[in-house]
Automatic annotation (TrEMBL):
Protein name per UniProt: Succinate dehydrogenase subunit D
Gene Ontology terms, MF aspect: metal ion binding
Main location: membrane
Pfam family, one: Sdh_cyt
Localization per record: Membrane
Keyword DNA-binding assigned: no
Transmembrane segments: 29-52, 72-96, 108-131
Annotated SUPFAM superfamilies: Fumarate reductase respiratory complex transmembrane subunits
GO cellular component labels: membrane
InterPro entries: SQR/QFR_C/D, SuccDH_FuR_B_TM-su
Keywords linked to the UniProt accession: Heme, Iron, Membrane, Metal-binding, Transmembrane, Transmembrane helix
Length: 151
């Protein structure tokens, strides 16, 4: 009678562990913390935009201009933007590391993910902090005409 036993699980090799911070551990912690913060930020964003005031019918260019005139809402949206893009890029990096077997292809894809995330974070941050509602041609019926005329 043969004894069927399971092989011992592989133990980590201490000779391949890099010195320095454990980036996988910090990435794992970031995903949990940013996920909780994103839930608060996103539901706060949705509540203010959709439930208060006129709801979805009140969202127009003037509404966005009014929100972006406040430093509180600028930082709220930028924090949401940064957390969401880094959270998403880190998740994509994890998927690439799990499923792409070629080291060169994996490195290229991870690099492309982080470059795309950094570019979108930069562009989004610039939009939020440099937003000027007085640049477009405004019709006479807009509330912003009076605000922009006063500047």
């Amino acid at each position: 009678m043969a004894t069927d036993t399971l092989a011992a699980p592989r133990s980590p090799r201490s000779d391949i562990r890099k010195k320095g911070p454990n980036l996988e551990k910090w990435g794992w912690i970031y995903m949990r913390v940013s996920g909780v913060l994103l839930i608060v930020l996103i539901f706060g964003h949705l509540f203010v935009n959709l439930m208060l005031g006129e709801g979805i019918h009140g969202i127009d260019f003037a509404f966005v201009a009014g929100k972006f005139a406040s430093p509180f809402w600028q930082w709220w949206d930028v924090l949401m933007l940064w957390l969401a893009f880094i959270h998403g890029a880190n998740g994509m990096r994890t998927i690439v590391n799990d499923y792409v077997t070629g080291p060169k292809v994996r490195a290229a894809l991870v690099w492309a993910i982080w470059v795309a995330a950094a570019l979108l974070i930069l562009l989004g941050t610039l939009v939020v902090f440099t937003f000027d509602p007085c640049i477009p041609n405004l019709s006479d019926g807009s509330v912003l005409v009076e605000v922009c005329a006063a500047q």
